[in-house]
Inverse folding.
């Protein structure tokens, strides 16, 4: 028996009166059951999991499941604390030399060896280089974990340090090792030499590989079900990565332990499409820019019986239209357009050395924006006008409609 974040039972027990027809999916095991069971192996008593998976007694199963949940919470807190300390050390001591070293080797006493592998994965995500992280097992020995990037073979890297290490093992993507304290700098140097042999600078902090472009009106349950048919996904069968260009971030907030929960919107043929998403551990990048291109995977959110398709953000970049740009063509250009059933008047004028777009509403309010700026003035007159963020709703959509109307007049 296991539990999801919303408290639903997700595994049927033939002896239980509670039956859930919802089948297990790879994400349920990989991101819900797995971490809770894994946490016991890292920092708890493995007997708890053995009893959880073998008992026929629902009471014992529930008690062991709750112990797994509590242990996983402790594991999360450890990872958060160690992660912050590791980032501070990297930023202070190592970040300037990462391009030369092409590998990160970081060792600190008093870190729990059961969770440093998870921290290593997060450092790989943040810095884009292979990470070897360790902690002192005693005064004379260091015990560590390693995580790599696609162009770097962790096990071969450890093999290159064979004469300096104690025990070691692993595979292409990850490994574990031990070494005498006095060999740390020798191992650091050898790993850097190995990394420089197999990694080019373009391998560090690589760009995301996009599988296909998509508009938000195409992101729906039908698309998710087609992708779901490709499961299970993993290293040799990765989830497809989508890219949607020129979306507006209309809502965002920090939730949980440093995640960004957000809503993005896209205007297609005059209609607005919105979808929610999550950016795991993106606290350092909050707030997100207002107008971006986004790369993401699809995920299913099942909350209180409501199933929605959402985005799992993988990367962003500023859209090419993140700065509005237009020019004054020797004389003012004016026209009218409709937006949401209301008629507006717009034109491009010269204001000093800049071109200025002015949009007048039916209430005689004017929105004035200079080319290349992201703050506009809105009011009956310029002296009493208030400053507005042109990327906020509904200003950006009205501006786009005005520019489209002006473009048709100019042509």
């Amino acid at each position: 028996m296991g539990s999801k974040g919303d408290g639903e039972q997700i595994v049927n027990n033939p002896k239980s009166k509670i039956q859930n027809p919802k089948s297990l999916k790879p994400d349920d095991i990989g991101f819900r059951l797995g971490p809770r069971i894994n946490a016991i192996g890292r920092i708890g008593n493995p007997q708890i999991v053995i009893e959880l998976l073998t008992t026929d007694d629902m009471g014992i199963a529930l008690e062991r499941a709750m112990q797994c949940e509590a242990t996983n919470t402790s594991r999360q807190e450890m990872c958060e604390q160690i992660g912050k300390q590791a980032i501070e050390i990297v930023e202070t001591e190592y970040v300037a030399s990462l391009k030369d070293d092409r590998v990160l080797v970081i060792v600190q006493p008093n870190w729990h060896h059961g969770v440093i592998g998870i921290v290593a994965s997060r450092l790989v995500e943040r810095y884009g280089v292979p990470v070897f992280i360790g902690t002192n097992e005693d005064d004379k020995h260091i015990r560590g974990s390693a995580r790599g990037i696609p162009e770097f073979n962790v096990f071969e890297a450890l093999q290159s340090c064979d004469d300096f290490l104690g025990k070691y093992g692993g595979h292409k993507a990850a490994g574990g090792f031990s070494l005498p304290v006095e060999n740390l700098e020798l191992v650091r140097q050898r790993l850097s030499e190995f990394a420089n042999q197999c990694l080019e600078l373009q391998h560090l902090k690589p760009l995301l590989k996009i599988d296909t472009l998509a508009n938000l009106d195409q992101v729906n349950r039908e698309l998710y079900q087609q992708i779901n048919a490709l499961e299970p996904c993993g290293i040799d069968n990765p989830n497809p990565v989508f890219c949607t260009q020129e979306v507006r971030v209309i809502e965002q907030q920090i939730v949980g332990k440093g995640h960004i929960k957000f809503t993005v919107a896209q205007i297609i043929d005059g209609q607005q499409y919105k979808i929610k998403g999550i950016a795991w551990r993106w606290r350092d990048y909050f707030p997100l820019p207002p107008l971006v291109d986004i790369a993401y995977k699809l995920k299913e959110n099942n909350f209180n019986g409501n199933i929605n398709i959402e985005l799992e953000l993988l990367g962003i970049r500023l859209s090419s239209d993140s700065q509005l740009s237009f020019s004054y063509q020797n004389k003012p250009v004016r026209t009218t357009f409709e937006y949401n059933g209301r008629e507006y008047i717009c034109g491009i004028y010269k204001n000093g050395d800049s071109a200025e777009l002015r949009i007048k509403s039916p209430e005689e309010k004017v929105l004035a924006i200079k080319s290349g700026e992201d703050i506009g003035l809105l009011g009956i007159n310029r002296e009493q006008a208030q400053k507005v963020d042109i990327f906020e709703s509904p200003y950006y959509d009205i501006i786009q409609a005005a520019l489209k109307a002006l473009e048709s007049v100019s042509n």
Notes: Residues 212 and 242 are 5 Å apart (CA to CA). The two ends are 66 Å apart (CA to CA). DSSP finds nine helices and 17 strands in the chain. The longest strand covers residues 242-255.
